Amino acid sequence: MSAPRCAPGKPAWRPRPPAVRRRQGGFSLIGMALALAIATAVAIWASNEVVHRIEASAARSTGVWMTQIRLAVTQMLSRHAEALSEGKPPLDGEGQPLFAQALRPSLAELRAQGLLPTDFPNQSALGFGADIHIARSQTCPGDPCRLDGIVYADKPLLKKGSQVPDEVAMASVVASTDGYGGAVWPQAPAQLRGAAYGFPNPLAAGAPTHAPGTLALWAGAGAGVPDLSGYVKMRDTRDPDLQGGLTVAGSVEAGGYVNVGAREVPGHACGAQPGALAKSAAGQLLSCESGVWMQASGGFGGAFSVNYPLGCFHYTGISTANPRTGQCACPTGYESVVVSSGGVWKGTEGWTIGYVCVR
Question: pTM, whole model, 2 decimals?
Fold first, then answer.
C-alpha cells in the first residue's frame, strides 16, 4: 500500500517526534536549608568573636585606668609619708588639709593635687569607680612604719544578669596591671589576694568588707612597703649626699661642725656671691667681700710691733710678729694702723712702734 499523497500545493506530512520534558531550574529545599544553617553559624561565631574582643579591650582599659590610680596613690604616699605615718592630715602651704579623709582620698582630691589628669574619668570601662584605702602598720609612727594603699573597685565585677563573679573578666583585668592587681576571689572571700601580696578582707578594723568579685590594686613597691628610700624625712639618720645645690628659706642650724670644702686664696678676686664662704690652704675661713677673698674673722687682723734697730723682736729677744701672719705685717686685705710708739733711741732698748691690722 502506497503512502497517501498530499494534495497539490501542500507540504508532505511527517510524523511528530516524542515531546521532550523541560528540566526545572533553582535550588533544592535541602540545599537551601543547609546554606542558611552555615551562614547563621558563621554569623553567630563572628558576633561572639566581636563581643569577646570588645570585652577584652574593656578589661585592658580598666587595668590601665586602675594602674593610673595606683601610681597616683604611690605618689601621695611618697609626698606625704611623714604626716600619714604619724596619723596627721597632709596640709597645704596655708595649713589647710589637702584631703577630707587622709586615709581615704578621693579621685577628685587626687586630681586637685595634680596626681591625676584633670579629665581623668570617675569610672572604668567596665562601669565601676574607685574606693581608695590607706592602711598604717601598728608600729607607726615608729620604725619600721609601713603604709599600704589599696585601690578597690567600688563594686564587684559580676556576670551579666547574675550575682556570680565574672572570674574570666577579673583575670583579664588583673593581667593588665603589671603584677599589682588582685581581687577578692569567690574561693577565698576573707582575703584580698594578688600575685605578690595578700591582705585581710576587711583591710582593718572598721573598714568595709568587699564582696567576692571586687578587683583591687596594691599601691606599693619593694618588699611590702612603698619605695620611699629616695626621699629624706624628718629625723632621718641617713646622709642624703646631695649632688647639687641646696636652698633653704630659713636659718640653718648644725649640731656639729660645719665644714667648708671650697678652697680659695686670700686676696684673690672673688666671683661668688658677696658673703660666700671658702677655706684657704692653711685652713683659714675666707669670705667674699668687695670682690676679694678675705679672712672671715671680722675687722681685726692681728697686731705687731717693729723695733728700731731690732726689727721684729723685742729687746729681750721675744718675737713681736703678728700671730696671724708670722711676720710683722698684716694679712692680705688689712691695713696697719699705728697705735703706740716709745722707747729709748739710744741704748739696748731701741724705739718700738705698735700696729693694729684693721679693715
Answer: 0.52
